[in-house]
Amino acid sequence: MAPELQANILKSHGRRHTAQLFFRFGHGQQPAARLFLEEFAHTEITTAQQQQADTAQTKIDGQQRFVVTLLLSAAGYAYLDVPLDKRPGDARFAGGMKAANADLLDPPVATWDGGYQGAIHGMVLVALGERTRTRLDQHVRAIVKRLRHKSPKGDRLATVLCVEEGDSIQNDDGQDIEHFGYVDGISQPKFFVEEMAGLDTTNWDPLMPISLVLTPDPAGSVDNSFGSYFVFRKLEQNVRGFKEREKQLAKELFGDETSELAGAMAVGRFENGTPVTLSDDDVRIHNIPIPKPDLGKLNNFNYDTDPGQRCPFHSHIRKSTPRGDSVGLGDTLEGEKNRMMARRGIIYGHRFVHPNQAEFEEMPTKGVGLLFMSFQRDLAAQFEFIQRQWVNNAEFSRATPPTGLDPVIGQGPLPDGVQRYATTYGDPASTQAASAFGGFVTLKGGEYLFAPCMCFLRHATSAATQQQMAMQH
Fold first, then answer.
1. SS3 state at 473
2. Cis amide linkage into residue 401, ω under 30° from 0
3. Residue 84: strand, helix, or coil
4. How far apart are CA 290 and CA 296, in angstroms?
5. How confident is the model at residue 178 (pLDDT cuts 50, 70, 90)?
6. Cα–Cα distance measured from residue 266 to residue 246, given in angstroms and rounded to the nearest whole number
7. Alpha carbon of 196 to those of 104, 200, 411: distances in Å?
8. N or C: more exposed end of the chain, with fewer CB within 10 A?
């Protein structure tokens, strides 16, 4: 299926710089829009097969190569007059992210960035791994020019609604971190056996079936025509507020605002990626230096022996990837794993000082954050379920009483005294309630999209012509 599948779905593009271009086709430009898709598929879009070949070639010659993908929204499919039976059938996709606003407890659409408030027809992702953005930005400008091309009558093909720039930041160990300073992107599903080489899976097996992210594309014209549903969310981070709350929580729990453990308990990992739930032999607490973990231990763990006295039930990574916590709450471990997504996000926003080195006054309160992106086969059963039933659900917990929302991305009421922590690591008798932790991540816009198969994109014009002929007869 690799020649028909777009890149970045089964394997992350792994580039350090990206641009995400959101566009809306112009009124009456359907024929030109279909031609654009067809030409873009032939000249720009990277297939899964090409991504694999490019990765192998880069290892030989060291030259970085672009990854380019194109995704369409439900409004985009409607604009292109794609027959209903040829459009992706997910009901949540058809409604779009704006329709899910109340269910997800998202802020009002009127508060989103302007480019996301109206109709979005599609998104182009461009990624490159070079040290600077120079060549990527040149390429993006060329794509913008193509999208803004004028017809002889002076009508533009499309309006570019916004361009989001993503730039990764690494810590001293070369691991990607997010703006709060924590290693990110560790707990990812893997789809190929060769990716498992050398990994210890005694406590957690990340190998997942490709059906986790792939679904048949109804517009496909050849065998093995698959696509994937895509979630994009621009999440702004109040870094200064988060770090101030970390210090307050540390003082509240341990009487020491410099303790790393408080923030680590809220996130579920220390800044270097070490899971809080690991044993005393693996995790040094308070101000004692934390050992650098080996890569296997980063992900080879579960919560079977941790009833919330190491890693709190409400911690971010435990809420979003519960690793068996839902077993006994009406789910199975297999069913829980079927909720997972392939996350492909990257941070945005310029920092003058590295996140792990910034003084408090140098920490931003806005303008930086995460461009959350994920692939899945079912929006309601995966992304929306995780956000609604795990992250935003104060009742999702094996603990009694419940321990509240995810402190990082949870949305909803945040009363004091609900989130609970063990002030002595591993000691249930030391568990106590604390002041609310949360509200430092704000949605600034987003959309549900679909990554179509290549045969649909490569034959967008001829497919439309065939449809018109069928309607005429």
1. coil
2. yes
3. helix
4. 16
5. very high
6. 8
7. 34, 8, 35
8. C
Rounded Cα–Cα distance for residues 342 and 347 (Å) = 16
Strands, E, within 238-341: which ranges?
none
Number of C-beta neighbours around residue 273 at 10 A: 22
pLDDT bracket for residue 330 (50, 70, 90): confident
- Give the C-alpha distances (Å, rounded to integers) separating 117 from 162, 236, 242, 445: 11, 16, 27, 7
pTM to 2 decimal places: 0.95
- Tokens encoding 130: 């070079």
pLDDT number for residue 280:
58
For 393, the 3-state DSSP assignment is coil
DSSP 136-203: HHHHHHHHHHHHTPBPTTS-BSEEEEEEEEEE-EE-TTS-EE-TTS-B-S-S--B--GGGGTT---SS
DSSP state of 2: G
**Residue 467: pLDDT over 60:** no
Burial of 373 (0-12, 13-18, 19+ CB in 10 A): buried
Q: Which of 301, 251, 255, 261 is nearest to 278 (CA)?
A: 301
φ, ψ of residue 88 to 5 degrees: the values are: -55, 135
Average pLDDT over the chain, rounded to whole?
Answer: 92
CA distance 234 to 341: 17
Question: What's the rounded Cα separation, in Å, for the pair 300 and 5?
Answer: 30
Nearest one of 134, 191, 85, 165 to 463, comparing CA atoms = 85
Q: What whole-number distance in Å separates Cα of residue 96 and Cα of residue 75? A: 8
DSSP letter for each residue of 241-267: HHHHHHHHHHHHHHS-TT-SHHHHHHH
Percentage of residues in the chain with pLDDT exceeding 90? 81
Q: What is the pLDDT of residues 142-160, one digit of tens each?
A: 999 999 999 989 999 999 9
Using pLDDT thresholds of 50, 70 and 90, give the confidence band for residue 289.
Answer: very low
Helix H or strand E segment including 443: strand 441-451
**Using 50, 70 and 90 to split pLDDT, how confident is the model at 258?**
confident
Q: Is 456 left (phi over 0), alpha (psi -120 to 50) or beta?
A: alpha
Region 9-37: mean pLDDT is 97
Res. 473 pLDDT band, cuts 50 70 90: very low
